[in-house]
Design goal:
Helix content is about 35%, strand content about 25%. The protein has about 400 residues and is of the alpha/beta class.
Amino acid sequence: MVKISRDDNVVASFPEGHTVVTRRAHTRGRVRVAIFTDNDFGKVNGVTTTLTAVLRHAPPDLAIRVYTAACTEQDDREYLALKSHGVPIPFYAEMKMYLPRVAEYIRRARADRVDVIHLTTPGPVGLAAMRVARTLDLPMVGSFHTDLAAYAALLSGSAWLGTLMREFMRWPYGRCNRVLVPSEATRRLLIGAKGDPQRMLVWSRGVDTNDFSPAHRCERLRAGWGVSDRRPAILYVGRVSAEKGLHLLPAIQAALDELRLPHRFVIAGTGPMVGELRSTLREAVFTGVLDRAEVARAFASADVFVFPSRTDTAGNVVLEAQASGLPVLVADAGGPKENMLSGRTGFIVSGDASSWAQALVPLLRDLQLRRRLGAAARDYARTRRWEEALAPLYRTYREVVPFDTRLLA
């Protein structure tokens, strides 16, 4: 028996008399992963929340580092942000994308002895990931986080531009060995857009029920909002932008006012619709950008969570709200509806603003119903631990590492 080993680790053994061609990229038993993202960790969104969890829960046999671009340099063991030139994102001038320093990414990935490239976005840094993978002859895993085609169509008002973006996205994801999607809804969307179902794997999201918990409830914050059990806080957390379905909120408020139901909207986040909503949502609270601890406190201090987006692929905030003990209302399209239990932890809403208002009515009128659904939501969130949610991703990293063994007679 002939043993093939590297760095004192046996990687394969075969009977004598066979010719063995073997290739194993990783050393010392660890798979080294470079995650490329256009979302630097200065941003608070679903992508950065997910990637933070990927780093936090990584098992010992995986060495994972995030590669990104930002306005300032940061070079840590698990996080590399190269200082780069930023330009405004079309139709979303409040946010920037950064032009990647491709040659430096290649140099860093070679020095890090990377085994697997993980592309998380088809933006400039994602395209740099493709170049790194091609130059270093590395396998590439893709994960789908944002339906940029739907965003492009909504924000530009051009269905043609959305179709063009959909076709563009087939290019980077089409070069990935595997594509991980956050929901069955997203998987069906990509298959309908000519994606290869054989290469797709659902990688659902999780939540940290210590970081997000009813224990963070703050009565002083509620007093500042001017809410109480008799005047519940209806919370939204996320980008304040058209693709989130927030155009419904003023009409929802008008319907609730007509029913004489006391309430107050609390909008946590920022974006291009802030000015419009400030002028139409009377007495609403706009918190602006919050850090992670402040977001957790806002969740725990609210009474109901609404998420009318029909374009989100996952909606991490829906899990965070439930972990905080809130009943949730989500749209009947996209991935968020897969992250709650309809009728038990909240409601799935279809239709116009009137439907959303009617779904809110029993929750605003009945404190005990809010508490019962909120307790069930907290119990459900406990079943969505990051450790289990991340298992498909970690398994994929291990499976795509080049370790090709062919027996030639």
